[in-house]
Description:
The protein is mainly α and 451 residues long. Helices cover 81% and strands 0% of the residues. The protein has one domain (3-449). The radius of gyration is 21 Å and the shape is globular.
Amino acid sequence: xxxxxxxxxxxxxxxxxxxxxxxxxxxxxxxxxxxxxxxxxxxxxxxxxxxxxxxxxxxxxxxxxxxxxxxxxxxxxxxxxxxxxxxxxxxxxxxxxxxxxxxxxxxxxxxxxxxxxxxxxxxxxxxxxxxxxxxxxxxxxxxxxxxxxxxxxxxxxxxxxxxxxxxxxxxxxxxxxxxxxxxxxxxxxxxxxxxxxxxxxxxxxxxxxxxxxxxxxxxxxxxxxxxxxxxxxxxxxxxxxxxxxxxxxxxxxxxxxxxxxxxxxxxxxxxxxxxxxxxxxxxxxxxxxxxxxxxxxxxxxxxxxxxxxxxxxxxxxxxxxxxxxxxxxxxxxxxxxxxxxxxxxxxxxxxxxxxxxxxxxxxxxxxxxxxxxxxxxxxxxxxxxxxxxxxxxxxxxxxxxxxxxxxxxxxxxxxxxxxxxxxxxxxxxxxxxxxxxxxxxxxxxxxxxxx
Length: 451
């Protein structure tokens, strides 16, 4: 296993002393703070949509929030995988400084893109002509875009430093940072809701920006000791170059760009579908709820990268643990989706009107496989990243997004299907096909490294 974990530097993380002796308990202790991190982040969406749903003009504000949020996600896409890059590449002073510079430069470029798209001469033609939004929803979404301008840079900043924390075995600190994020978001949402009586889109977008900035600041403070240790470590062998960083990171960035290009495309098709306003209104509620179950699997990629070991000694216990996560999350979401609990959630927790709650039921039932497939995909990606074969990851994501678009073209313009139902079918089929394709390069790595 990596030297920093073998040295058992920090008992707070429940570190693992040897990959060769990985047990389910050890894996759980390392993974659980990261799973809790994603679980807390997955609560953000339901909390904010529940607040927006309880404010005046529920449907246009929910629709605008979904549009603004997914556009911001797409713009931040190139920086998201910096977490995996920091976990895999930062080993000494030189690699730390170069990847930090790389991250900060990318942050600046993405912030500029966010500002440009939020300019009215660019945003409104894009929203009305391309996304097909109504004037009311477009106006509200523009407010959300302006308020979320700090989002990409704050995400990049904190993911870089969180990657170092994970590599150093300090996964509990990552979870503490997310607790700060969630509490900051909740306080901001309550303040905007009760103190200023603003539109729902303002509550949602402003609260998200406050939250990610708070978490970024917390991550910088928490990583101080790890940074000091890195800054005295001299490179072993040739120093990491910017071209090597680009070769490693570009496929990962493309993976996020392609993958997060799907939500705006889904929004575009739903805006032109049967029952478009209802579909746009329930979609952020649906995706937020499904993310409650998908989130814990998304933390799995960095766990695999860290614990699998230089010689893949930890492969088999990690594979067995993946099976447990996948089956458990599918079972848990199914217990909600196919029982009256779903109606209770959508009406009493999410705050949807009864007719919108009923409208959301079938799309939710269609998407019950997504949590399990997300955990499996994170494991497969983690194995490939650990082997240095990142190119196949972006190809897999391109196939997934292409299938989503093809399914939407078939189901909405040709078959005139309700937007939310078509979107649920499309994202489920796309993910299943992605899991199928990535199995091929994944198995090649396993046969070569494990036997």
